[in-house]
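Internal QA ticket QA-208
Title: Verify multi-chain structure generation after dependency bump
Assignee: T.L.

Test input:
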Amino acid sequence: MRWARVEVNGEAVHGIVEADRIALVEGGLFDGGLDGGGARTGQTVALADAKFLIPLEPKTFYAAGLNYAEHVIAVAKANNKEPNIPTDAHIGYRANNALIAHNQSIIKPSDASEEFQYEAELVAIIGKQAKNLSEADALNCVFGYTIGNDVSERAWQRADRTLWRAKNTDTFAPMGPWIETDVDLDSLTTIVRLNGREVISFATNNMIFGVARYISAMSRYFTLYPGDMVWMGTEGHAENMKLGDICEIEITGIGTLSNPIVAEA
Amino acid sequence: MRWARVEVNGEAVHGIVEADRIALVEGGLFDGGLDGGGARTGQTVALADAKFLIPLEPKTFYAAGLNYAEHVIAVAKANNKEPNIPTDAHIGYRANNALIAHNQSIIKPSDASEEFQYEAELVAIIGKQAKNLSEADALNCVFGYTIGNDVSERAWQRADRTLWRAKNTDTFAPMGPWIETDVDLDSLTTIVRLNGREVISFATNNMIFGVARYISAMSRYFTLYPGDMVWMGTEGHAENMKLGDICEIEITGIGTLSNPIVAEA
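Actual output:
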């Protein structure tokens, strides 16, 4: 099942994607627990006309950061350093101010460099309060999965003491288009296209530490809550995005997240 | 004016602290903008009997991290490194799951080391949406100030790739007891007491980068929202907290945040 969140008459409404329409639903995304929101209103909107919102207003925005071997090696090489492959599932954080929805514009700040890049990520959405989960039980608290673009300004990432503006500037975290609840992690492929040209493709689940391992490790110390989300990192080397480009991230079985790059006003 | 948030009949209610009582108020903390919540209900609770909650459920939990020179030097010395004084106001992040209120227990995990330490911090609460603020205008978006204890497990802080469990474990972020809106930053002194014994005292505003500088820098890239908060870092070297200790942090003119240290069940 695919859960979208769209703007209808100025209000945010959840809905179920069915073929080319979205069936609107009453109430919050987790009103039905891991089964999702409340009753259908009977109203639908055409997928083509929908004004997408981020699929949920997340509680805590967790991010794995370095979690694919080739990406770790590519980043190290770009910085003339030896690659340092993570040996444990140590989670990081991003900021909700940066989130935008499917089709919304990624705004490139006027002082950003040319090294303005996408990072295609699988995003796990937590649907159930959880603590001290074993790795075998960890996925039982997952509501579903969506797609994230962890937009990164590499000059700032190298220069700054933290990732504050390099990865958390307003509009630097597109996510969507919706949450897919029926996912076979091992069957997923992530594909990035710039203006329709494929720039990278990789097996989504080829992570150093998978979703279950991260959630289990986190839940030893943190209570996880419905609405928390975990961005799982990206693979490979990225190209630069230029003004006017359209960046599309597809994860097969989930959908395609598309966002244009525009200049700061 | 002092804005507390307390539990009354199982509900979270904001209130104004007046002498030894809290006058309860209707609605949300920012319903009156920078003047605070709604109308008084006429009901009061005794300060001594109040069950304090965190003074707000924050939106984004920003943290300056290293922001006092002696602390940077002490941390470097403990790690046999040269001190690296920050040259710019680069903000970091903490997680809301870690927050607890005045009088609630800091739970020391069973696998935490002896290096389990307090960090006494001034916390600025944002009350107004803001972007691109000059340093001169930056404090105009601040609703008030409270006190934070950025509890830190130093062995994890040294060993881990991120600060995930070292600083974001459940209960590692006590804050309160309330928000003070009338604050003269230059007149504040921060004092930490362990079991009543003073362990450190410092001029609160003796920061490398002050509140206005941080907010101005952040607002260049981030939209700030009512309910965001900025923890401003701590000074000096900390002692270890042991099970059974009570850690009190006073910031003169604001109040005293007190929390006992207990073992994980």
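Spot checks passed. Chain A has two domains: 1-53, 56-263.
Status: verified.
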